[in-house]
């Protein structure tokens, strides 16, 4: 799980100011299976795009607190839509929304750069199914909960190196800074996956 796989890829990174309507309309333009991670003033919310529609935990079980609140851009601070080839990242800065898009692949304007992928373990050492495509994860005695848009079967014990955990997959892109030093220039999300913890 902790192995870093370095690769040379072509990517395009673009950013621009956008409106709330641009964010809402974008849902219909991304491919099926694209995932969403939103940071709201009330917590985080995961989602999945299917048939040009966004589905969140609220859409599955509206009566289940604390997942009973529908997704609302008005209380969001960051929103990421991501899949294996692209991330569309929105953030709110002083009331103005901005969009940054990173797309991998042989496309117009792409430049080759070094990148590596790594996994970040998410909260959740036990799980239960949540609809057909989601899983509710709970972490220990704290009772921290969130609902991720994958099917996972998590049941771990402390320090169990053979246990399964859900991980967020992050891709880092390298480039030279003003001093010619090769550093991470930007990063994006590209998936979530159930993996063997400690491997």
What does this 3D model show about the protein?
With 199 residues, the chain is mainly beta. It contains two helices and 13 strands, in the order βαβββαβββββββββ. The strands form two sheets. It has a ten-stranded antiparallel sheet with strand order 4-3-2-5-6-7-1-8-12-13. It has a three-stranded antiparallel sheet with strand order 9-10-11, with no helix packed on it. It is globular, with a radius of gyration of 18 Å.
What's the gist of this structure?
The protein is mainly beta and 199 residues long. The protein is 6% helix and 56% strand. It has two helices and 13 strands, in the order E-H-E-E-E-H-E-E-E-E-E-E-E-E-E.
Give structural attributes.
single chain; 199 residues; mainly beta; three-stranded antiparallel β-sheet; 2 helices
Can you lay out the helices and strands and say which pair or pack?
Elements: E1 5-18, H1 20-26, E2 35-40, E3 43-50, E4 53-56, H2 57-60, E5 76-82, E6 86-93, E7 96-104, E8 111-121, E9 126-130, E10 134-139, E11 144-148, E12 164-176, E13 182-196
